Recover the amino acids of this structure.
């Protein structure tokens, strides 16, 4: 019975980096490093350091659509920017707009 407790404690210590890294993006890679190279002290320490290190924030890219209704948009001949179809003047440079069919 004491031997089983000792083996359980050793397995807990062995997989400690996996436990600490369970919520990280690279949790599977941390587990693989811990499983295959954890028996070496260097592999175990690397897995532990990787598990407790800070994750870089994930960049979120959001595509923004133009606020111009499809069909008719007004293009400024001066600055080249589109404006709302109901506008008479450019919102960027205030010059008069002409209608452009898309």
């Amino acid at each position: 019975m004491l031997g089983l407790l000792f083996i359980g404690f050793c397995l807990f210590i062995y997989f400690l980096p996996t436990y600490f890294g369970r919520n990280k993006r690279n949790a599977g890679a941390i587990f693989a490093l811990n499983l295959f190279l954890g028996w070496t002290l260097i592999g175990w320490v690397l897995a532990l350091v990787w598990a407790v290190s800070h994750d870089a924030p994930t960049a979120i890219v959001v595509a923004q659509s133009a606020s111009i209704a499809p069909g008719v948009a007004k293009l400024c001949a001066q600055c080249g920017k589109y404006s709302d179809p109901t506008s008479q003047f450019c919102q960027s440079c205030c010059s008069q707009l002409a209608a452009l069919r898309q």
User: Anything to note?
Assistant: The longest strand covers residues 72-75. The chain is about 40% helix and 10% strand. The chain has two domains: 2-52, 69-102.
